[in-house]
Amino acid sequence: MAVKKEAVQAVEEAKEEKKDTGHVQKFSVKKLMEHCMDIFGVSQSTFAGAMYGHEGTKYTIDEAKLILDEWLYGKKEGSK
Asked: Which residues form the YqzN/YkzM domain (predicted)?
Protein backbone atom coordinates (compact mmCIF):
# COMPACT_ATOMS: atom_id res chain seq x y z
CA MET A 1 0.00 0.00 0.00
CA ALA A 2 2.93 2.34 0.68
CA VAL A 3 4.08 1.91 -2.93
CA LYS A 4 0.68 3.00 -4.26
CA LYS A 5 0.69 6.00 -1.93
CA GLU A 6 4.17 6.90 -3.20
CA ALA A 7 3.03 6.68 -6.83
CA VAL A 8 -0.07 8.77 -6.20
CA GLN A 9 2.03 11.32 -4.35
CA ALA A 10 4.49 11.52 -7.28
CA VAL A 11 1.62 12.13 -9.71
CA GLU A 12 0.15 14.84 -7.48
CA GLU A 13 3.55 16.50 -7.05
CA ALA A 14 4.06 16.49 -10.83
CA LYS A 15 0.66 18.16 -11.31
CA GLU A 16 1.42 20.79 -8.67
CA GLU A 17 4.83 21.48 -10.15
CA LYS A 18 3.23 22.04 -13.56
CA LYS A 19 0.75 24.51 -12.04
CA ASP A 20 3.41 26.38 -10.08
CA THR A 21 6.22 26.57 -12.62
CA GLY A 22 4.82 25.52 -15.96
CA HIS A 23 7.48 22.78 -15.94
CA VAL A 24 6.39 19.15 -15.94
CA GLN A 25 8.42 16.48 -14.17
CA LYS A 26 9.72 13.65 -16.35
CA PHE A 27 10.28 10.09 -15.17
CA SER A 28 12.36 7.21 -16.50
CA VAL A 29 10.51 4.36 -18.17
CA LYS A 30 11.75 2.11 -15.35
CA LYS A 31 10.21 4.36 -12.69
CA LEU A 32 6.92 4.63 -14.59
CA MET A 33 6.85 0.85 -14.99
CA GLU A 34 7.30 0.35 -11.24
CA HIS A 35 4.05 2.25 -10.68
CA CYS A 36 2.20 1.59 -13.95
CA MET A 37 -0.74 -0.18 -12.30
CA ASP A 38 -1.36 2.76 -9.96
CA ILE A 39 -0.80 5.47 -12.54
CA PHE A 40 -2.16 3.95 -15.77
CA GLY A 41 -4.15 0.93 -14.59
CA VAL A 42 -2.16 -1.55 -16.70
CA SER A 43 0.14 -4.46 -15.86
CA GLN A 44 3.91 -4.19 -16.14
CA SER A 45 3.91 -6.53 -19.14
CA THR A 46 1.39 -4.32 -20.97
CA PHE A 47 3.38 -1.22 -20.10
CA ALA A 48 6.62 -2.89 -21.22
CA GLY A 49 5.08 -3.79 -24.58
CA ALA A 50 3.85 -0.26 -25.15
CA MET A 51 7.16 1.29 -24.17
CA TYR A 52 9.34 -1.10 -26.17
CA GLY A 53 11.94 1.04 -27.94
CA HIS A 54 11.37 4.02 -25.62
CA GLU A 55 13.58 2.87 -22.73
CA GLY A 56 16.32 5.49 -23.07
CA THR A 57 14.14 8.55 -22.61
CA LYS A 58 12.31 10.22 -19.75
CA TYR A 59 8.62 11.01 -20.13
CA THR A 60 5.96 13.02 -18.41
CA ILE A 61 2.98 11.03 -17.22
CA ASP A 62 0.88 12.53 -20.03
CA GLU A 63 3.47 11.61 -22.68
CA ALA A 64 3.67 8.04 -21.40
CA LYS A 65 -0.14 7.85 -21.35
CA LEU A 66 -0.28 8.90 -25.01
CA ILE A 67 2.25 6.22 -26.00
CA LEU A 68 0.36 3.62 -23.98
CA ASP A 69 -3.03 4.59 -25.42
CA GLU A 70 -1.68 4.56 -28.98
CA TRP A 71 -0.21 1.10 -28.42
CA LEU A 72 -3.41 -0.22 -26.85
CA TYR A 73 -5.98 1.43 -29.12
CA GLY A 74 -4.09 2.59 -32.22
CA LYS A 75 -3.88 6.15 -33.45
CA LYS A 76 -7.00 8.18 -32.88
CA GLU A 77 -8.69 10.16 -35.63
CA GLY A 78 -7.06 13.55 -35.99
CA SER A 79 -3.81 12.48 -34.29
CA LYS A 80 -0.50 13.19 -35.98
From this structure: 25-72
